[in-house]
Amino acid sequence: MRYAILSDVHGNLEALRAVLADAASRADGVLCLGDSVGYGADPGACVEILDRRSRAIVAGNHEHGVAGLLGLDWFNGWARAAAEWTRERLDDDHRAWLGALPLVSQVGDATLVHASPEAPDEWEYLVSPDDGWSAFPHFATRWCFVGHSHVPGVWSLGSSGPEFEPRPTVIGAEAGRRYIVNVGSVGQPRDRDPRAAYGIWDMDAGQVELRRVTYDVQSARDKIVAAGLPRFLADRLAAGT
Ligand code: ZN
C-alpha cells in the first residue's frame, strides 16, 4: 500500500489538484494532516475533495479556528482574517465536518498529527532538531507524519543516535530507527520553494519520498486577491515563504 500524505492544503485548489495528479500513478490512497482550509480562496472545494479522497484525516489549528474550537486570538492578523473569511464561505455541513475531525489518527505503523504529538491541541511547532527528538516519547508507532510548520524535514532516533535532515528527498527506514517526517505544505510552502510539497509513503518498502510539484501559482494568487483576502497571502505563494 502506498499513500500520498498531504498537509496544509489551506484552500489552495490549484495546488491540491496538481498534487493529486502527480500522486495518481504513485499512490493507492490519500492521508491528510490538517489545515485543509485557511489562507486560500477555495476552502469548500478543498474540503469536499479531501473528504472524498482521504483514507484518514486529522484536524489542524485552522480547522479548529474555523469550527469555533480555537479562539481566533490565537492566530496572527493574516491567519485571523483568513479564518473569518473562510468561516463565512463554508456552509454548516463543512464547518461541522471540520469540527469533528480527530486530532490524531493511526494508519498501519504511522501516527498522523498536525502539530506535535506531545499535546496535539496545543499546536506546538516542530522546527529545531531538539523539537523533533523530544517528541518521540509521545507516539508509539515507527513513523509519525506531521505538518504545521510548512517546512519539510525528518527527525530520527535509533541506536546510532539522533539525526535531523532539513530537506530530505527519500527516507528509507533503517532497522531499529523511528522517524518523524514533516511532509511540507501543499498549499502554502514556506521553505523558499514555491512548488507544492507532499509525501509518498510506501508502507511495505518502508520508504517515504518527499516530492515537489509545480502548479498554477498565478491563478491561486489571483483568486486570493479577487476574494478580498490579504494581498500578502497571495504574494507569499510566489515566493514560497
Ligand atoms: Zn498550516
How is this structure best described in words?
By secondary structure, the protein is of the alpha/beta class. It has one domain (2-239): Purple Acid Phosphatase, chain A, domain 2, CATH 3.60.21.10. 31% of the residues lie in helices and 23% in strands. It has eight helices and twelve strands. The strands form two sheets. It has a six-stranded mixed sheet with strand order 3-2-1-11-12-9. Strands 4-5-6-10-7-8 form a six-stranded mixed sheet. Strand 5 (110-113), helix 6 and strand 6 form a beta-alpha-beta unit. Helix 3 packs across helix 5. Bound molecules: zinc ion.
CATH fold call: Purple Acid Phosphatase, chain A, domain 2
**Radius of gyration in whole Å, from Cα?**
17 Å
Cα(first) to Cα(last) distance is 33 Å
Which structural class fits the helix and strand makeup? Answer: alpha/beta
In helices, the fraction of residues equals: 25-40%
CATH superfamily label: Metallo-dependent phosphatases
Strand order of the largest sheet: 3-2-1-11-12-9
Q: What is the global morphology? A: globular
What's this model, at a glance?
The chain is of the alpha/beta class and 241 residues long.
Key traits:
6-stranded mixed sheet; alpha/beta; about 30% helix; binds zinc ion
What's the topology here?
Blueprint: E1 2-6, H1 13-23, E2 29-32, H2 43-53, E3 54-57, H3 61-67, H4 77-89, H5 92-99, E4 104-107, E5 110-113, H6 129-133, E6 143-146, E7 153-157, E8 163-165, E9 170-172, E10 178-182, E11 196-202, E12 207-213, H7 217-226, H8 231-239
Parallel strand pairs: 1-2, 2-3, 5-6, 6-10
Antiparallel strand pairs: 1-11, 4-5, 7-8, 7-10, 9-12, 11-12
Helix pairs in contact: 3-4, 3-5, 7-8
The protein binds zinc ion.
